[in-house]
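Item description
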Amino acid sequence: MRLSALGILLVGLTVSAGCAGGRPLGVREYYSGEKAAAEEIYRRGLEESPNSRALYLLLLGNLHLDEGRLEQARREFIEATRIMESFTAEGEFEALVGAEAAKEYKGDPYERMMAWWYLGLLDYCLGDYHMALPSFKSAIFADGAVREERFMADNASGYLMTGKTYRALGEAEKAEREFADAIRAGAVRRDALILFDAVGAAAAELGASGGDPDTLQTAGDLVAAAAPQAVGEETDLRAALSLAARKARRRLREFSESDGDGDTFRGEDAAVVDERIAEVAALAAYKLQPAASAPPGQAAEAVLAPAPCDAGNLFVVAALGIGPYKYNAGLYGQYVAFGRRSYPERYAKVFVDGREIGTAVTIEDVYYQAATRGGRAMDAVLAGKAVLKDVFAAAAAESFDEAGEAETFSDEYWESVFEGIFASLLAALVRAEADVRSWETLPDKLQALSVPVEPGEHDVEVAFYGAAGEIPGARVRFPAVRFEPRDETVVYVRSGSGGWALPGESRAVVTPAE
């Protein structure tokens, strides 16, 4: 076997592409409360990892948002979104021939959505409604632009805040339209989560009863990924599940690639995965029946309604838990999978002067947004690189076999040995692993509540609750927060990280008591 000049070119290109990047540093420090250490790591990342600049700006902006350094956080989110929305191809060629992480970080749709949403929230809190409006609309676009045309974005938090911004600008009719879309998006999320639970339970049960867990997991993931689209088109949950299974099969056919012996999907036999989709969907439909017949709001968390989030002069935003992270999947790590870490908080309650005034409702599920984005454009390229890696490995094995059959130390022997070494180097240098850089300090959920409060100064507390009731030590107190009759006071709380209050025209940041 003889290797072409293309192989030599690939060696030079892959060597120059550099090493693959991994998950960002400073995440452990952030979640353990070592904020100064985390900030130092992020700032060092800005200098040492130019292709990850947007990511480290997001991490810094997130940190400063928690601490109430709003103007600083706003500047960082502005710069990050400029990089993420830029159409420059910095590092793109190197990513095609070397490691995907050599390219400039632009973020996944859910990360761009949250970056624009936080920027909009900062402008909204600082009273710049004309700047907040395009940011919230950009968040909706970032969520919906990757979907099929007929499927609308399901970013309830974006629609809600766009409605609140229109209300602040005095455009009541536009505000009502946005609130209606927020309700629709909340219903899509609720129904999709019902399907998620049913599909996940079905895949787990089939795996426990003797089925191949990996193939069943793949089948379940394909159906679950199609669930938001399906519930956007079908109001009946069983019909939506059937549609999701059909969409999953279409995606399986579109993304399956032949390895010469048959079609595979992410290293698994596509025909077997197709069979498992039918099995998972059938069992999920059976499990779905009780939930599908339950009244709305009882089968899962209640649908978002505008009243709890646009009803008074106190607006509380509570960020709960630990957001999703990416990890490598597939033989060569060429696919991205999303992980979800456990945390105790389930919901937040708000107290004014010691009196409970309401429970926040979920306006965004970040893991849901991350896990339902569909196939990544780079996956096909990375799968091709994985095949190329196999080709070089096979070439190396063939060359070494030829050397073993040739006369020892003959010209043919040495030629085959050198070809085997060369092909082995090519196989080692082709970087097929997917980029797992991600904004890991995002919350898992955003919840919100809006209620009227008497003008004057009041103590505000936000308490976090888990399965067994209020979580000890998780209550955040804001003393002497000022309320005006018409001006909205905004309270932002991140579980485990404190928060801030921004009352009326004074815009003074109030740090929560220890």
